[in-house]
Amino acid sequence: MPAAPDAIMGLVEGKDQQELCREVLAIGDTMDVLRGKWTVEVLTAIVCGNTHFKEILASIHGLSDKVLAERLRTMQDDRLIVRCEYPTPYYSLTNHGRDLFALVYRMSTWGLAHRRLMIG
Amino acid sequence: MPAAPDAIMGLVEGKDQQELCREVLAIGDTMDVLRGKWTVEVLTAIVCGNTHFKEILASIHGLSDKVLAERLRTMQDDRLIVRCEYPTPYYSLTNHGRDLFALVYRMSTWGLAHRRLMIG
């Protein structure tokens, strides 16, 4: 899944310092969103079909309902999810949230390779 | 650049809870590596051709030589970079480090879109 790093190296090599700085800052913005505790877990829960509050809560071990309520509000503010009211309240990923999840999901392959490297 | 989130959603939908848990843990492993202060900046510096210690130091604002030396050691332990000795000491990304940088670099597009969304 990671693949084609050389294509990305090529992209970087052609850029000036200012543009690269802007990109590194943007990477930081993404990291800030991802650092929010439980964000990755909540995104995954919703993607997996646990879209109601109680379903999300039940699917994530160690998460309290108070913390989940706060987290869902932050994720709505960050435009990652929307709360839908019909037929009963549930949460859905926005396109922006889906794009983020796609990025995050690619991390699992690297993380597995990393664990193998560190153990091996 | 993010693109094809639906393909990724499809991948997730077919998986059982145990496999998904393993993947979420692996995402956490990747995040742990990325959370290391200056890691993203040092990867970017090396990709941009600042491969000698002094070049890396000069290219990252606010980084001391002591902290950089520690960070380079940690990144070597994490198999992200190697120290080469010839003709003069310099640092190079491993394939594992390049794969990580490719992941990280994709975050810049999302981060830029996020900033626009938050400001707009």
Structure classification of chain A:
mainly alpha
- Quaternary state of this entry equals homodimer
Question: What's the average pLDDT of chain A?
Answer: 88
The helix fraction of chain A, in percent, is 55-70%
- Please report the two chains with the greatest interface, counting residues with C-beta closer than 8 angstroms to the partner's C-beta: A-B, 54 and 54 residues
Please provide the ordered H/E string of secondary-structure elements of chain A. HHHHHEEH
Strand content of chain A: 5-15%
Outline of chain A? globular
The largest pleated sheet of chain A is described as: 2 strands, antiparallel
Unreliable spans of chain A are: none
Distance between the termini of chain A: 21 Å
What is the CA-atom radius of gyration of chain A, in angstroms? 17 Å
The overall strand count of chain A is: 2
**Number of DSSP helical runs of chain A:** 6
Q: In which order are the strands of the major sheet of chain A placed?
A: 1-2
Commentary on this structure:
Two copies of one chain form a homodimer. Chain A has about 120 residues and is mainly α. Chain A has six helices and two strands. Chain A has helices spanning about 5-15, 15-35, 40-45, 55-60, 65-75, 95-120, and strands at about 80-85, 90-95. Chain A has a two-stranded antiparallel sheet. Chains A and B meet through helix 1, helix 2, helix 3 and helix 6 of A and helix 1, helix 2, helix 3 and helix 6 of B.
